Amino acid sequence: MTKNNNINNEEEEFVSFGHNLNTKIRFEDADEDEAAQVSGEAAQDESMCDAEAVETTEVTDDTTSADYYFDSYSHFGIHEEMLKDVVRTKTYQNVIYQNKFLIKDKVVLDVGAGTGILSLFCAKAGAKHVYAVECSQMADMAKEIVKANGFSDVITVLKGKIEEIELPTPKVDVDGGVVLPDKASLFLTAIEDSEYKEDKIEFWNSVYGFDMSCIKKKAMMEPLVDTVDQNQIVTDSRLLKTMDISKMSSGDASFTAPFKLVAQRNDYIHALVAYFDVSFTMCHKLLGFSTGPKSRATHWKQTVMYLEDVLTICEGETITGSMSVSYNKKNPRDIDIKLSYSLDGQHSKVSRTQHYKMR
């Protein structure tokens, strides 16, 4: 799941190459002199704060997601994982190198630059200048990487939040801005996952003989980001929403979409799974990739939402419902999900609404 836009100006359009899908890059034509504001966006934070039995400290939701979010990107492991994600990194590299007309002689803004890999791609493709914004401690490493590769005169690394820093240039877009990727589609499917659900959710019912089911309720509310085996898929996949990233405003990432999933075989359903596809339609040749379970794995993996019910479903039966996605009111870096589903089948008759929170 991609997290989502915090855009102050609804007219703003970004160029996005991101280390997660939310990294944004903008271009500036050297002849443009109009000022434009730049606003940041945050990605999903999959981290969870564990409670210790002996001593506990109350941590607010704001602290967990806002402060820990940037700190998580200070660790080398997450950047190694993203760089080794060949689907993601090679696609962006191909988009930039094979479409240099979008980059050459432009001023580029890379938001959430991480190690600076996309800034380096742009510099090598002929960008006039690249401003690489990174809030985590990785910004210090990015400066060294830029220097080591001889691009210090082309790439400027700026440490801080995009919402707060002041750019050395008044504007970084041309003709309304170019966004890469410019299209994103969100899909939903259903899976059998008894073994993993038993291990991760039902485990809390009896822990060394003690009832810890209060944690089970919380665990159920936290979607699991993991790789799903395509053999677990029980239903077809349905499109929930397609977003034109180049024209999105901040509120467009909040939505409610209906769905209807048709069972492809007799089986049991333990969870619904969300994933996204992206496409680069601005390129000379259409490029894109999918993060779905039937495609090559990426570091985004898939988002698994476990159901309270085990659905016994027969081939041809349908699960109908709706999914609502919105920013958390206390912290926009969190995403609130409301999932309503119904099955009126031969062996299961269920109608329920569940709530989840992505961090």
UniProtKB/TrEMBL annotation:
Residues 182-346 form the Protein arginine N-methyltransferase domain. This is type I protein arginine methyltransferase. It is an enzyme of class 2 (transferase). InterPro entries: Arg_MeTrfase, PRMT_dom, SAM-dependent_MTases_sf. It comes from the Eukaryota. GO terms for biological process: methylation. The lineage of its organism: Eukaryota, Viridiplantae, Streptophyta, Embryophyta, Tracheophyta. Its EC number is 2.1.1.319. SUPFAM superfamilies: S-adenosyl-L-methionine-dependent methyltransferases. Keywords: Methyltransferase, S-adenosyl-L-methionine, Transferase. One of its GO terms (cellular component) is nucleus. CDD domains: AdoMet_MTases. PANTHER family: PROTEIN ARGININE N-METHYLTRANSFERASE, PROTEIN ARGININE N-METHYLTRANSFERASE 3. GO terms for molecular function: histone methyltransferase activity; protein-arginine omega-N asymmetric methyltransferase activity. The keyword Transmembrane helix does not apply. It catalyses: L-arginyl-[protein] + S-adenosyl-L-methionine = N(omega)-methyl-L-arginyl-[protein] + S-adenosyl-L-homocysteine + H(+).
